[in-house]
Amino acid sequence: MNDTSRQCTLPELKKGVRGRVYGITGGVQAVRRLQALGIVPGKEIVKVSEMPLGGPVVVNVEQTQVALGFGLAKKVIVEVLNENSAGRQPKRR
Amino acid sequence: MKILLVGNPNVGKSVIFSQLTGTRVISSNYPGTTVEYTRGYLNLDGERVEVIDVPGSYTLEPTCKAEEVAVAMLPYGDVIINVVDATNLERNLYLTLELLERRVPVLVALNLWDEAQHKGILIDAVRLEEILEVPVVTTAAISGQGIKRLIERLPEARTGRVQWQTIDERFATVGRIVREVQQVTHRHHTLLEQLEDLSVMPVSGFFLGAAVLFGAFKAIRFIGEGLIGSVFEPFFNQVYAPLLEKLSLALGEQGLLHSLLIGQLVDGKIDFVQSLGLLSTGLYIPLAMVFPYIIAFYAVLGFLEDFGYLPRLAVLLDGLMHRVGLHGYAIIPMVLGLGCNVPAALSIRNLESRRQKFIASTLMVTAIPCFSQTAMIFALLGRHGGFYVAHVFLTLLCVWVVLGLLLNRWLKGFTPSLLVEIPPYRLPEFRVLAQKLYLRLIHFFKEAIPFILAGILVVNLVCFSGLINLLARAVEPVFRFLFGLPGDAAIALLLGFLRKDVALGILIPLHLTPEQLVVASTVLAVYFPCLATFLILWRELAWRDMLKVTGIMLTTALAAGTFTNLALHQYGVLVWLLAVAAMGILVVLDVLGRKKAVAVQEEM
Q1: Nearest CB to A56 within list B91, B328, B416
Q2: Average pLDDT, stretch B554-567?
Q3: What are the E-state strand segments in B62-201?
Q4: Chain B residues close to A36, C-beta within 8 Å
Q5: How many Cβ contacts (< 8 angstroms) between chains A and B?
Q6: What separation, in Å, do the N-terminal and C-terminal C-alpha atoms of chain A show?
Q7: B150 or A54: which carries more pLDDT confidence?
Q8: pLDDT (tens digit, 9 = 90+) per residue, B246-276?
Q9: Taking a C-beta distance cutoff of 8 angstroms, is the pair B504, B492 a contact?
Q10: How many Cα atoms within 13 Å fall on the side-chain side of residue B288?
Q11: Nearest CB to B417; choose among A32, A36, A71
Q12: Which pTM does this prediction carry?
């Protein structure tokens, strides 16, 4: 609850946790593709799930659910926010 | 005057298009259904106005072929209807701002209005109109709500007064607008939303995926067999057969015309499968053997599409698809290809790189049998037992995997990561499903019947002229040696260029053993796409890549045919063990190679 400024990549973020996009470490192409779906620095996201063995990461951005392939997800750096987030998140605790 | 429908993917442009023009186009609940523009006409106060349905795009800076089509269309529009998803205002407004910076009259359709209300999203449309300074009309296109108003306000479309902004400024503006006009009330998750989340979780996702595929398979069989047993067979046997027998008698039961129209009598009677006449077999194959399964397949596919399951399948299979040089979304052309390879070849446009397009096209045309073909394989081999049917499909699966692994190794370049919006689950309306099914059945009739009749005609001509014997003698040694097939089977391969189902159909009179049928079915599935698919791919890939694909297909067909022949006629399980071992080695090589490649991919 108290750690406000911890940073990690999207695959490292725990399921159901809310984070704020801090930056994108990829090239122009990656930044542009993510931008198109509203994944830009400053945006709050909630991680929904992650497939095993380097599969995609699914996040909620605003009212949309977006799937990011593992390679792309690793380029998204997020600031971990309050774990007790509002909005849609997996039912399991 | 030209009106363009422009908006993000999967916001309902095609539904609005259908409502405005009465021209029916296929719409589904996943991004990238429309990959080409469609024209239609709207009667506006007596003036015939052209309306164009443009593929969806998130920005005016395209990232794939379908989006390029969209952006290239823009200069041709006199008015743009910007279709905006009301449940996703924030993301959609980015494109709206980009459009307003261009000097072209814009009108905003705030679509999915009903769904936004259900979700507790309140948007002040009047205020939005004031801010954007262009008309904003709320619509719920599927039920037709707001469409009339949209047409009424068309003349009010205005050029935006937004100055050009940098990307960051634009996002800031979007944020400001959304804060001012939108209010989201919190509410409990519905059952569908819980199912949405479960569908993309590792364990429950794969469990649900398996259940969906199994259910789809069962449903297709149930509907298909039901239709054949209760409608099509009774019709052909009780209504059509007596009519045809009268015609046969009238024609004197022999002669050129009789052979052409009705074919050879088997034991003095018309045999719909073996007679090979235009009016007997020529109609029976497409209508009684294939068509019922086409109905069944598209009924089930339509439901899955509109429910919104396909993007979730892409998430589940992304890891697997990366092994063959594709990403998860390439599952869409594969699934569509199971129905018909033609729309599948078009949907490959949604993939980003040339490498991906090449791999996806190759795998789709070589190893994905269309449903006409599948229906015939079931009809031909099903009566000999499930083993034979399974053999064909398992071989095709192996071809898909091995070919994919090899292409991924050999082709330069890398595969971009999956990035896709996952739409909410929506319970499809029966009326909408029925319309889509109707469109696809019409397409089947236009594509299938002429080709099948042409195919039967070719068979008859070849038989009459005696060319068949010449051809059979010529290929006999090769066919015997590689495939264990008689030379006569060559005519099936020849016809396969036109249409796969009829090619399988004419194997029946040859009285092949089940093993030989398996070999023939496998070779037919792999060696070449039907003419219609070939032409589309030629256009999409250009001739150089198409030649490569053709070369790969022919080689693979030889290999797959020989493999099946060896497995069924000579060495049995041993061949399969070898194949599995070879696949294992390829997988290990892939895993080892990937560790090195990761470092390189990081750079991109």
Answers
A1: B328
A2: 89
A3: 79-85, 105-111, 121-123, 136-138, 158-159, 182-184
A4: 58-59, 63, 94
A5: 124
A6: 15
A7: B150
A8: 898 888 877 888 888 888 888 888 888 888 8
A9: yes
A10: 21
A11: A71
A12: 0.88
DSSP A13: S
Distance between CA atoms of B504 and B520, rounded to whole angstroms?
Answer: 8
Tell me B232's DSSP state. Answer: I
Output the six-digit token pair for B177.
């607008």
From chain A, pick out residues whose CB is under 8 angstroms from the CB of B419.
33-34, 37, 66-69, 72
Within 10 A of B235 (CB to CB), how many other CB atoms are there?
A: 13
Of B63, B318, B601, the CB nearest to A33: B63
Is A88 in the B-facing interface, judged by CB distances under 8 Å? yes
Which one of B94, B171, B419 has the shortest CB-CB distance to A69?
Answer: B419
A54 touches chain B (CB under 8 A): yes
Token pair listed for A4: 């406000």
CA distance linking residue B428 with residue B62, whole number of Å: 30
Q: By CA distance, what is B202's nearest residue in A?
A: A51
| CA–CA gap between residue B243 and residue B251 (Å, rounded) | 13
Contact residues on chain A for B422, CB-CB shorter than 8 A = 58, 64-67
pLDDT at B521 over 80: yes
B529 three-state secondary structure: coil
Q: Does pLDDT of B80 surpass 90?
A: yes
In this predicted complex, what is the ipTM? 0.86
Residue in chain A nearest B316 by alpha carbon: A51
- Per-chain mean pLDDT for chain B: 88
d(CA B489, CA B494): 9
Contacts of B58 in chain A (CB under 8 A): 36-37
Residue A5: is its pLDDT beyond 70?
no
Pairing of strands A76-80, A7-9: antiparallel
- What does the alpha-carbon distance between residue B76 and residue B80 come to, in Å, rounded to a whole number? 10
For chain B, how are helix, strand and coil distributed in percent, rounded to 5? 70, 10, 25
Task: Give the residue from B109, B103, B121, B108 showing the smallest Cα distance to B160.
Answer: B103
Share of chain B above pLDDT 70, in %: 98
